[in-house]
Design brief:
The protein is of the alpha/beta class. It has one domain: Rossmann fold, CATH 3.40.50. The protein is built from 7 helices and 10 strands. Strands 1-10-9-6-2-3-5 form a 7-stranded parallel β-sheet, with helices on both faces. The longest helix is centred in the first third of the chain and has 23 residues. It is globular.
């Protein structure tokens, strides 16, 4: 795991975006195309803001996949991740291909549809975050490290749902959906490169178990220790509980 600690979230986003752009351009140069995964949420604001300014990336040669989506949420809902990505990424760079998860359809059928698509498009770069409960995508603890399907239906635990309220996506915990379609842990780990942006003090405990704890389903992000090209970008706050980190 390659760990970078930056002074603040803005710098974190700029450096993470730079590393992602480097890998995306390399894939385009070598194969004529790049397949990427994008996460959403507050942790990705600065990374996507900086990435979408990169005019040196030929976005027409990029296919974008979507990490997760609430079940029962329409794409016009303020908390919809489809809406988030359309506004913060797709409308800004006009990628060559866009594969979004439809949360307002039959979940099991949607898992099969988007799963079939991603099986034929090996992922070059995944830009992801870590939840306050150390989830990856919506794989809350204890996460299933063994399931092979690319996309699965998951139950959202209380800590995850409270995070969504805390970030301002929903007015109350009762308004947060109880289920979501999520990319599985195994599928995330198949990405050639992982760009993991994790700012803020509220993520510090999750960062500590990810970096310094054992690989454990109760800390889903700890599985990142097994990835050969994982770049973890932290700020001073999110890294504040770590004991030994060489920047």
């Amino acid at each position: 795991m390659n760990i970078r600690i930056l002074s603040d979230n803005t710098k974190l986003g700029a450096v993470a975006a730079d590393q992602a752009a480097t890998f995306i351009k390399k894939s385009i140069q070598e194969r004529g195309w790049a397949n990427i995964i994008l996460a959403t949420g507050a942790s990705q604001f600065q990374t996507l803001k900086h990435l979408t300014t990169r005019q040196d990336v030929d976005w027409s040669k990029v296919a974008m996949f979507h990490l997760d989506e609430y079940i029962g949420i329409e794409p016009t809902h303020p908390a919809s991740f489809q809406k988030y990505l359309m506004e913060r990424f797709v409308s800004k760079v006009d990628p060559g291909e866009v594969y979004l998860i439809k949360g307002d359809t039959v979940a099991e059928e949607e898992c099969r549809r988007i799963g079939t698509l991603i099986k034929s498009r090996p992922v070059d770069v995944a830009l992801i975050g870590i939840g306050e409960n150390a989830h990856l995508a919506f794989n809350d603890p204890p996460a299933d490290f063994n399931i092979e399907e690319p996309f699965i239906v998951v139950d959202l635990d209380e800590a995850c749902r409270r995070q969504q309220v805390g970030e301002g996506w929903f007015p109350s915990i009762d308004a947060v959906p109880s289920q979501a379609i999520s990319m599985s842990i195994n599928q995330i780990m198949k990405s050639t490169h992982l760009i993991v942006s994790v700012p803020d003090q509220r993520k510090s405990k999750a960062v500590k178990c990810t970096v310094e704890g054992p690989i454990d389903p109760h800390c889903p992000a700890s599985i990142l220790q097994n990835h050969s090209s994982c770049f973890l970008f932290l700020d001073k706050d999110s890294s504040s509980l770590l004991n030994h980190v060489t920047n």
